[in-house]
Design goal:
about 170 residues; alpha/beta; Rossmann fold; 7-stranded mixed beta sheet; magnesium; T6A_TsaE
Length: about 170
């Protein structure tokens, strides 16, 4: 049986709109939420991650865990597990016990997740950020399984689009 999936896209044109989108997505987060984040270098993955962390109540500096692979933060609402798997092989990632994070009590956000796709949980929210130039980006959200497909359907009803012209 095939899982439900849905897509919602937004065009964002500023850091403020990035923060607003992160807040919108963070409002849905519950323990065990898994969000994957892909896009070219410089597309805004870490900026989005920082805004998301702030939205769930993480205090202090959140930076990319490029060399530490995983950073854990305590948020006011939820714990935040921030991963950057860019430098990991599939085998190395498999040895880290990622399921403990994916099915844990916090929210897991994985930058460069497409590099470990086989290790990701079947239900997740996939975000792809495309840099359009300057401050402008398109963020494509694909909800795979429940509740993520429902989230995308709801965002589409609120004005997101799956035709790349939705803006916040």
């Amino acid at each position: 049986m095939e899982q439900a999936s849905a897509r919602a896209d937004w065009q964002i044109h500023s850091l403020q709109e990035t923060a607003e989108l992160a807040e919108r997505i963070a409002a849905k987060a519950v323990p065990g939420t898994v969000i994957t984040l892909d896009g070219d270098l410089g597309a805004g993955k870490t900026t989005f991650s920082q805004a998301f962390a702030k939205a769930i109540g993480v205090k202090g500096i959140v930076n990319s865990p490029t060399f530490t692979i995983i950073k854990e933060y305590d948020g006011e609402k939820l714990s935040f597990y921030h991963m950057d798997v860019y430098r990991l092989s599939q085998e190395e990632a498999d040895e880290l016990g990622l399921d403990d994070y994916f099915y844990g009590e916090g929210v897991t956000l994985v930058e460069w997740a497409s590099l470990i796709e086989d290790l990701l949980p079947p239900n997740r929210l996939e975000l792809f950020i495309e840099h359009l130039g300057g401050e402008s980006r398109v963020v494509r959200a694909t909800g795979i399984g429940e509740p993520y497909a429902d989230w995308c359907d709801e965002w589409n009803k609120m004005g997101a689009t799956n035709e790349n012209d939705g803006s916040l």
